[in-house]
Amino acid sequence: MGTSGIVFLSSGLFLGWSLGANDASNVYGTAVASRMVKFKTAALLCSIFLMLGALIDGVGTAHTLGALGSVNAIGGAFVTSFAAAFTVFLMTKYGLPVSVSQAVVGAIIGWNCFTDSITDVSSVVKIASTWIACPVLGGIFGALVFAVFKQISKHVNLSLLQRDALTRFAMIVTGAFGSYALGANNMANVVGVFIPVVPFTEFSFFGIEISPVHQLFFVGSVAVAIGVYTYSYKVMMTVGKGLLPLSPFASWVVVLSQSLVLFIFASEGLEYFLASHNLPTIPLVPVSSTQAVVGAVIGIGIYKGAARNIDWTVFVRIMCGWVITPIITAFICFISLYVMKNLFDQPVYTPKTYTISEGVLNEFEDHGISADKLQVLIGKSFSSGKEMISAIEDHKELSNKQELLALKYAEVVRIKIDTKKMNKLSEKIFSNQEKKDLLALQDREFNYRWEIEDALIKQNKSWQKKPDTVLNKKFNEEIMQQYKMIEGVFKWEAQG
Question: I need a surface site. Which of 34, 78, 361, 401 has the fewest CB within 10 A?
């Protein structure tokens, strides 16, 4: 990775530091505030297990952010990440726990606005719904866990010293689980925008292939760990004491409740289990540990009949932070992109071209977009997504889903299979038969992604994606990985 790559990635490290200072602190916040666990012990355990969660299970939630907006230039990724980090830093400076997830979403929407990209409204709704579901689930888990273990404790004869020791041990173990869940769920917030432009290359470590994405997640988790150590204590005390004074037992319940919330929004295994048993699945979305903690604290307070003891002034401050965070971040991102592009002359966006051909209109028809009134647009090219959608909507209205489909099939991506580049395809990703399928398309030129996909499917049905369900998710992701590598290796520019 060159010097410029390190400089641009620095904003992601800043965001990781901000996550550690704000959200990660909440894993052990109530334990530290109740003096059941020392800050240094909490910080060490949080850092270790957060790294494990990021590396083992952290990629799953990145796909949801990717659907919201794909930042396709490292300069844009730098600004997007910086805007989110700066907003979180401002809130943290005043001891106000906010959602890093909300900051990242606001930043991506700001990037979409600046680059005239269409925002996937369904992804926004999916993510925003968790901003309500997360604290509500935290409150439900908090009340239920508190009630269950309170009943169990009545039937277990332990001395006060034994209870304290057991509670301390439970806090440490549960905090480790919560740290793992946080790394799995929130690392996509820290470095997710850099995935399309990741500045690393794959390498082997003792025979283990370390992918660029896993390197990215490791670097991000180190930044989070530094944030935990250097600046998290103030936010720990805000959540741990500012909202509602908690007993050591209640503090442990809060840690367990928020850990469960983060886990269910990050676990691909749980998602697959629910789908395989025909049960409703939970979206894999980066959520806020802060929101889960606040929800759990309030849930316990309401269950105990101590709602009047909750400092509702602190709660209103926290809620205001949640509301304004994405708005402020989107504004900061938009202004920063303007400065980066016009003052520092740095590319923040890789231009895309959209061309409507007869084949594109056929794809529209195949995917439920009537092309009756769009024949007049055949042969026309557009330099931005909004420009193309505006031209189409002069003739017919499209839903947001149809807009995204239209952009997908009209985007020009020129691919030409060159036998000299075949050795660049990973043997771990492509079988010998799949390479033969590609060789059969030697020297053919394709102008759209769907053209080469259709050509490969005609060669071999194994290239065809399965219906878009959770059970087929892994298979389809592997197919998409192959198509992305083909594009990266064989992409070319037409001469003249």
Answer: 401
